[in-house]
Amino acid sequence: MALKLYNTLSRKREVFKPIKKTQVGIYCCGPTVYNFPHIGNYRAYVAGDLLNRYLKYLKYKVKFIQNITDVDDKTIRDSQKENKSLKQFTKPFIDGFFQDLKSLNVVPADIYPKATEHIAAMVATIKKLLNKGLAYKTKNGDIYFAISKFKNYGKLAHIDVTQLKEGASSRVRADEYDKENSGDFALWKAWTKDDGKVFWETEIGKGRPGWHIECSSMSTKYLGQPFDIHGGGVDLIFPHHENEIAQAEGAEGRKFVDYWFHNEWLLVDGKKMSKSLGNFYTLRDLIGKGYNPLAIRFLLVSTHYRQQLNFTFEGLNASKNSLHRIWNFMKKLDECNGKGDAKLVDNSIKKAISAFEKCLNDDLEISGALAAVFDLIKEINISIAALSKRDADKVKKTMKLFDSVLGFIIVEEEAIGKQIQKLIDDREKARKGKDFKKADEIRDKLKKQGIILEDTPKGVRWKRA
Ligand code: AMP
Ligand code: ZN
Predict the structure, then answer these.
(1) Ligand 1 pocket, residue 294 CB under 6 Å
(2) 271-406 architecture in CATH?
(3) Which residue, 221, 305, 340, 383, is most buried by CB atoms nearer than 10 A?
């Protein structure tokens, strides 16, 4: 059965047909590195990761690109506040972003292009737009895209350009949405003294690029034009992605992107999680409260990417409990040594894989896919005591297959297992040395992590509460 994806361009689920039969190019808008992303941002990156992983599961060769916006109004403003060069200022946030992606077990992109390292490509696109009369330079050296000259403007957001006329006459320089949601938009911003040392001397003047040109230039540089899938949060549909289309299609005279993939918001109390509302948690905040980042991944993955998801600690705890169920199951599989009925196991596995794929093929319908995983766990659990080692290995292999898409089943379990084992060994050592205080402290520490120790004739065993 073929994969269907919802395409924002057509507002329909479409059968996914890549430009090259076995290869897929994806570009997902990345972070603006002026602070640490919140978990709302990570909802977008995890949605892109799920798509990337599932396409790989389907045996496509995926080229995945995610940009880093390391020059814009905000990075300039805040670097100056801190009296740092742009590079010095953005570095910790770039490092933090990569660390977070690793914690969330996001498959790394093939390339993370930085805007500051691709100015030449942007200048080349802007020159093409100027030559074609789609862009114009103002007296102070700013360069704007003239939306009235581009006939398809509005095709992604499904908006009527005539309604934007007023915006067109009151052009603004800022990248911020509230000022830029209508009218002509900046491709190039001429240097002003507020920019300090941040500028490039180029053929089109001294200045810096606008935000939108960064993404269309970097995506096509690495993926060609057209390419298959462009992703980001729904708030990027307009104006950011609309403007990317105008720039790329205006400059090259051919289609930019075939499928537009947009994730819905992570909400808090019914409002979008955002820096400006102050209702956000960073990944670090939640890890600091003792949450495993994979529980956060579970939470972000487990609601369909086009549905809004309300963040609550109740929901996060439920995710944690679901994960523990999976991890306990994996652990039990390691201990199987019975003589059960192989046929039953084969049937359960076959049924689970088929349901898993059927759901994900339907625009990444994750609830059904997760139900398939939990149904398998339930069915196998019924007779797990009798399961043979060979069958347990088959189930493990299936879980590993699922995990290539889900990314929260295997990795951490191994790491956690080692970490817990080390604490158990330390406790044993303490007990042998009659340091019962230390032994109890270790037991309590593990208990806080939801790990319960059992003294058995075979030694100390652990399980999750
Ligand atoms: P920004 O750094 O603001 O450009 O955002 C980076 C990515 O995070 C974009 O794809 C946004 O659409 C997405 N995003 C921001 N806030 C949220 C949220 N509350 N829920 C889901 N996605 C978000
Ligand atoms: Zn972008």
Answers:
(1) no
(2) Orthogonal Bundle (1.10)
(3) 305
Distance, CA 212 to ligand 2 centroid (Å)?
6
Beta bridge partners of 201: 206
Q: In what order do the strands lie in the sheet with 271-272?
A: 271-272, 266-268, 309-310
Sort 453 into a burial class: Cβ within 10 Å, 0-12 / 13-18 / 19+: middle
pLDDT tens-digit profile of 32-63? 999 999 999 999 999 999 999 999 999 999 99
Q: Is the pTM of this model over 0.85?
A: yes
Which residues of the chain carry a pLDDT beneath 50? 166-181
- E strands within 264-398? 266-268, 271-272, 309-310
Task: Determine the residue of 35, 41, 66, 260 to mutate for testing ligand 1's pocket, defined as the one with the most ligand atoms within 8 A of the Cβ atom.
Answer: 41
Phi and psi at 438, nearest 5°, equal -65, -40
CA pair distance 397, 392, nearest whole angstrom: 9
Domain ranges of the chain: 18-263, 271-406, 413-464
Q: Residue 366: which of 36, 110, 49, 39 has the closest Cα?
A: 49
Quick one: fold of 18-263? Rossmann fold (3.40.50)
Say if residues 221 and 240 touch (Cβ distance below 8 Å): no
